[in-house]
Amino acid sequence: MCKTICFMTLVAVSLGVTSCDRPRSGANPPPSREQDFASPLVSSEVSGKGDPEPIPSTTPPGSHMDPSSNAYIVFDGSGSMAGEPIEEARRAVTAFVQAAPTDLNLGLYVFDQNHQGGSELVPLGRGEKQRAQLRQQIAGISAGGGTPLGAALRAGTESLMARFQQQLRYGDIRLIVVTDGEATDPRTFDKSIRYARDYHVPIYTVGFRVREEHALRRFSEAYLTANDEQQLLNAMQETLAELDDDADF
């Protein structure tokens, strides 16, 4: 009899201990991890781990309200442009620069034989000295090397966003890409596309003598094609269609 009572007592104590280990039905769940702050101009895809730091949202020194428009040209001078294509492209882009609105800020990024990794040859700016510098740099482009479009898109986005912040986010920005081939830095290309889209930098692509549909077609505000010098000039002018009031097009 005593053994039976002792056994029942031991079972009751064990059940009581077990019930104390269970969470109460009315207990609050543990607080969730606070979400990372995201700038209204930057999606979580850009500010997430593994991606480069986003462009700071602070106002740079010397900033002022400026409604000017900005066009940043990416010139593909890769090896596949050798011969007649590079000559026609140089003449067409030079004519575009010469006829562009005088109050338009222009910048130039080139990858070619002399800048195979890609380089900004002329930063965004305007004025006759700026146009002369652009013409000089375009004349010196020599076909050669690969097609690092990813690096070019990244550089163009950063340059345009820096200018946009200097203008206190007034005015217009656009990235104009003249290319004849696919990117040879595909991983960087994918990241740079997301980067440009997250910052709402519109890409205008002119496929010059392209044989197949270009990957940039999917991500461009406008995608145009050209097969000769005049068509290339017309297509580049089309990228500024709504800005051409003062142009000599």
Summarize the structure.
The chain is of the alpha/beta class and 249 residues long. 37% of the residues lie in helices and 16% in strands.
Write up what this structure looks like:
α3 (84-99) packs antiparallel against α4 and α5 (149-166) runs parallel beside α6 (186-198). The protein has a six-stranded mixed sheet with strand order 3-2-1-4-5-6, with helices on both faces. 37% of the residues lie in helices and 16% in strands. It has helices at residues 2-21, 44-47, 84-99, 128-139, 149-166, 186-198, 229-238; strands at 69-76, 105-111, 119-125, 172-179, 203-208, 222-226. It has 249 residues and is α/β, with parallel strands linked by helices. It is built from seven helices and six strands.
How many H/I helical runs? Answer: 7
Q: Give Rg in angstroms.
A: 29 Å
Largest sheet: 6 strands, mixed
**Basic shape:** globular
The amount of beta strand, in percent, is 15-25%
- Low-pLDDT residue spans: 1-50
In the sheet with the most strands, the strands line up as 3-2-1-4-5-6
Strand elements, count: 6
* Secondary structure category: alpha/beta
Q: What separation lies between the terminal Cα atoms?
A: 110 Å
The helix/strand order is HHEHEEHHEHEEH
Query: Average pLDDT across residues?
Result: 81
Q: In percent, how helical is the residue content? A: 25-40%
Descriptive key words:
alpha/beta, 249 residues, 6-stranded mixed β-sheet, disordered N terminus, 37% helix
Secondary-structure topology with pairs:
Layout: H1 2-21, H2 44-47, E1 69-76, H3 84-99, E2 105-111, E3 119-125, H4 128-139, H5 149-166, E4 172-179, H6 186-198, E5 203-208, E6 222-226, H7 229-238
Parallel strand pairs: 1-2, 1-4, 4-5, 5-6
Antiparallel strand pairs: 2-3
Helix pairs in contact: 3-4, 3-7, 5-6
